[in-house]
Amino acid sequence: MGPAAKLKKIFPRISTRGFYDLYSGRTIKNEPYRLYPKRDFEALIGSKEITIMIHGLRNNASAALTKFVIAKRRLAQLGYKNPVIGYSYDSNIAHAQYIMYALHALNTGIIIANKNGRNLARFVTDFKRKSPGTKIRLMGHSLGAHVILSTIKNLAKNAKNVGILEAVYFFGASIPSDALSTRNGSAAQKIVATKIRNYYSQYDDVLRVADDWNWLVTPIGYSGAYGKTISKYSQTMVKPKNHRFASYAAVLRSFP
């Protein structure tokens, strides 16, 4: 077993795999989340901060772990010394690889991603109760941005959660370009303490197709934000090779 395989095997992750139906997005298990390995999460209590990486569409459990390892390695190269953990959810939607099913798969993916906002919000509040001093940063790639946006909306239901997330980072995000406008972004402005950073690319082939075919309202990861945004939002245009998370990680120049 090489070092990468070993790292994948023990990579600390929050998982909701098997909680949602891969054909319809229907909820199968009404559980908050599962933690693997549990003792790693106990060890995180009291840490200065943690970063949670949320993968995109068409990732099975193994592919998701690969993304978490890429995130951890890239952040370490940029001098980030704090723990990085993964958030693994049902995004390996049935038939997503066939063009005739692609739109249905995307819509199912969005349903599941939005439902996962409840799960991740629950983890955040549970963890902050045990470790109130720990700052929590969220990184989301592609569909992972939907999970983050939904998490923010769920957290915003409770006034006690103001500033509960330290910062948010989007890479090739598939959420709408007006999601963080002054009109739509008030929850994010409240819940995120310091900043929401969007790395977008007009060279992103996948988001361009989704935009051209009107599968998604113009994605914020493709063209950047539309209109006046909330003050905690900022964006950086990047030139990744393609839509893959590895390509976005490669062009990331600093963190946090």
From TrEMBL:
Record Pfam families: DUF726
InterPro entries: AB_hydrolase_fold (IPR029058), DUF726 (IPR007941)
GO cellular component assignments: membrane
Subcellular localization: Membrane
Membrane topology of the entry: Multi-pass membrane protein
Keyword terms, alphabetized: Membrane, Transmembrane, Transmembrane helix
Domain of life: Archaea
Classification via PANTHER family: TRANSMEMBRANE AND COILED-COIL DOMAIN-CONTAINING PROTEIN 4, TRANSMEMBRANE AND COILED-COIL DOMAIN-CONTAINING PROTEIN 4 TMCO4
Protein name as annotated: DUF726 domain-containing protein
